[in-house]
Design a protein that fits this description.
alpha+beta, about 80 residues, single chain, 4 strands
Length: about 80
């Protein structure tokens, strides 16, 4: 999915946080979203590249895309 086609309902900034905090904070925000809405997560923890897609699948959400630029990661997850 192209980034210009993704319209996040919420953005979570986890820059500077280490595992497991980005995942825990993402879980809290996802609980407030409606099915089909997208959460954008911005972070600097390289472990999130593995953790967030795995958690998304486990929790029944759809991991749409991730990007990385200058050590800053962006993840897009659609609530299932």
């Amino acid at each position: 999915m192209a980034l210009d086609k993704i319209n996040p309902a919420a953005t979570l900034d986890t820059r500077g946080l280490s595992c497991p905090m980005p995942l825990l904070k993402a879980k809290q925000v996802m609980e407030r979203l409606k099915p089909g809405e997208v959460l954008e997560i911005i972070g600097t923890d390289p472990g999130s590249r593995v953790d967030l897609p795995a958690w998304s699948k486990y929790a029944g959400h759809t991991f749409l895309k991730s990007t990385e630029q200058g050590g800053v990661f962006k993840f897009y997850i659609k609530k299932g």
